[in-house]
Amino acid sequence: MTAIIPLSELRERIDSIDRQLLQLINQRAACAIEVARTKLAEGETGSFYRADREAQVLRKIKELNPGPLSDEASVHLFRELMSACLALEKPLEVAFLGPVGTFTQQATFKHFGHAVKGIPVATIPEIFLAVETGHCQFGVVPVENSTEGVIAHTLDRFMTTSLQICGEVEIRVHQNLLGKMDSLTAINEVYSHQQSLAQCRQWLNTYLPGVPCTAVSSNAEAARLASLDHNKAAIAGLMAAELYELNIIEQHIEDESNNTTRFIVIGKQQPASTGLDKTSILVSTGNQAGALHKILGPFAEYGISMAHIESRPSRQGLWEYVFFIDIDGHRDDTDVAKALETLQNNVKMLKILGSYPKAVI
């Protein structure tokens, strides 16, 4: 039988380990400062954040983790440590779809850590503009939801922007009914983003039949509006409930329990290959027979897996479409490069939107 260790001894051990951890953390922070000095000496004056490097470090943490902490917990701890160290080099400014309390802000913190300076922006086009003009180094925008499909405003903006996709992050979306009231009977209107209203349609029809549902610019804005009236409710995340001091009337009211939103990180950076990457492209074929076959053929020829394909009107001709496609691999990988070169010769237009590490956390 294993002997029980006295509590006082265990606490002494923890205190000793904490002192060692603090020393090691600050040693890492000092190294981060030296990294910044070296980069500046070598003429690198842009963002010190490297999506490829951070993905490799976090994947290594997963590989090395012996437990008992889970891989997810270990990666989150190191994500925040890396974020704090990077802020010592040069704080990042990241634009997200505001106001504060949105799922896009949650995605921003999940990807970059809480040491970044998040800049809330009113619309998706304004996020692109903030990065294009250099007001922010990066932006985070939603691109698709597992139940409601793509975010058209995001895809359409890629037709004109020169920005690259630098990374991706996924958030499991749990919708909650929030308000100043204590029961459903007091609610005479529900606010939320149109996507969230759609994700909770069955629940609303069942438990709030006949109650008007009003679409607003974001879930956080819905929570703000609900905080002003004791008969208005909002569908939003728990972060919004805390920020706007709302009661959580019902939790997890989304119709699909695995409801997930994918966000992408946009910037001017082109991450290097990490071995576990994704490439997003924009393709136009014009209005011609066999167009889709011309797109898919090169990927089949070189054994490239296609993760997603979506069509959108090109706005340049009647019944002309562009295709947004995600494939596995990096643009610099040999087979991917060959497939893209072949595709270039088959289509009217090919635009590489970015090669970037697959989401780690």
TrEMBL record:
Localization per record: Cytoplasm
GO MF annotation terms: prephenate dehydratase activity
Alphabetical UniProt keywords: Amino-acid biosynthesis, Aromatic amino acid biosynthesis, Cytoplasm, Isomerase, Lyase, Multifunctional enzyme, Phenylalanine biosynthesis
Domain annotation ACT: ranges: 280-357
Chorismate mutase domain residues: 1-93
Organism of provenance: Methylomonas rosea
Known EC number: 4.2.1.51, 5.4.99.5
Domain Prephenate dehydratase intervals: 93-268
Name this protein carries in UniProt: Bifunctional chorismate mutase/prephenate dehydratase
Catalytic reaction(s) noted: prephenate + H(+) = 3-phenylpyruvate + CO2 + H2O; chorismate = prephenate
